[in-house]
Amino acid sequence: MNPLDFLLEPLGYDFMVRALVTSVLAAVVCALLSCWLVLIGWSLMGDAVSHAVLPGVVLAYVVGAPFALGAIIFGVLAVVLIGAVRSPGRIKEDAAIGIVFTVLFALGLVLISVTPSQTDLAHIVFGNILGVSTADLVQVAILAVVAIAVLLVKRRDLTLYAFDPTHAHAIGLSPRLLGAILLGLLAVTAVVALQVVGVVLVVALLIIPGATAFLLTERFGRMLVIAPVTAAGSAVTGIYLSYWLDVASGGMIVLVQGVLFAIAFLFAPRFGVVSRLVGAGRSRAATAP
After folding, report:
1. 192 near 241, Cβ under 8 Å?
2. Other CB atoms closer than 10 Å to residue 33's CB: what's the count?
3. pTM above the 0.90 mark?
4. d(CA 202, CA 196)
5. How many C-beta neighbours within 10 Å does residue 252 have?
6. How many CB atoms lie within 10 A of CB 149?
7. How confident is the model at residue 285 (pLDDT cuts 50, 70, 90)?
8. Amino acid 289: pLDDT
9. CA within 20 to 30 Å of 195's CA: 27, 142, 155, 235, which one?
10. Which residues contact 287 (CB under 8 A, 6 or more apart)?
11. From the centroid of its chain, how far is CA 203?
């Protein structure tokens, strides 16, 4: 098989084209948001909100409402509950996050098991990118465009909030509002990523691209380019590999992202493990008598 056949054969199927477009859209919006999540240190919060939206998505399906509406409601509910559990001071934040998101995730699983449906709602948990319909693609595109637009319009304010919320407050910005915007976008983005990898692996799309870019550059502007480029490349590569190897598409996308992170972790020019070891060796050699 020549390389052209390798690239073109999957494109002969409509479901593969929809899968490619959907996965790239989801990867890009998740990657952009991941840059802020990594900077702020909200990796665990991203995990919590992405799992906590499950019951909201299921209930939205039951009543025929948009998935994003249910996700946002339960995303906000998760944040409120986390604050309520940790506010007395006895329970620490990581424990509060773990308690809230596991309970809400379990509620979502119970709702899936008792919800009468002609479709298999398990795809919400594990993803079903090859089963994305045209309507699903339109929904993903609308949510992705909205999320990307908000991130780009509020880019400077959100970046200042990530680096120095005290300074942001001093110049008249509201850290609480900016945090709420990020949490709302996190809930919306989780719905986008659900179509690709399901609730279980959403956190991978929300964290790995930003972490990879963080290892490769010290400039946030470059992070906002590196993260979506690597994420989109991982999405396309993962979809093609899943087609030719006959494996789970969502899992393969995350594996490709994991491989890119491992390469950056080891060989990043300044922060990679190998680069630091080589630099340390050169420093010792230069100072040796």
Report:
1. no
2. 31
3. no
4. 8
5. 22
6. 10
7. low
8. 59
9. 155
10. none
11. 5
User: What is the C-alpha to C-alpha distance for residues 210 and 232, in angstroms, rounded to an integer?
Assistant: 13
3-class secondary structure, 248: coil
Question: pLDDT tens digits, residue range 228-247?
Answer: 999 999 999 999 999 888 88
124 near 58, Cβ under 8 Å?
Answer: yes
Token pair for 85: 């559990």
Tens digit of each residue's pLDDT (9 = 90 or more) over 70-84: 888 888 888 888 878
Closest CA relative to residue 54, chosen from 37, 41, 73: 73
Q: Which residue has the tokens 């939206």?
A: 53
**Residue 200 confidence (pLDDT) above 60:** yes
Q: What is the DSSP letter of 127?
A: -
What is the average pLDDT across 213-228? 92
Q: Dihedral of the CA atoms 176, 70, 248, 3 (nearest 10)? A: -70
DSSP assignment of 140-198, as one string? HHHHHHHHHHHHHHTHHHHHHHHH-HHHHHHTT--HHHHHHHHHHHHHHHHHHHHHHHH
Q: Which residue is it, tokens 């991978």?
A: 204
List the one residue out of 72, 42, 58 whose CA is nearest residue 198. 58
Tell me how far apart the alpha carbons of residues 210 and 151 are, in angstroms, rounded to a whole number. 14
Cβ–Cβ < 8 Å for 203, 46: yes
Whose tokens are 């999540």? That residue is 37
Joined together, the tokens standing for residue 100 give 């809230």
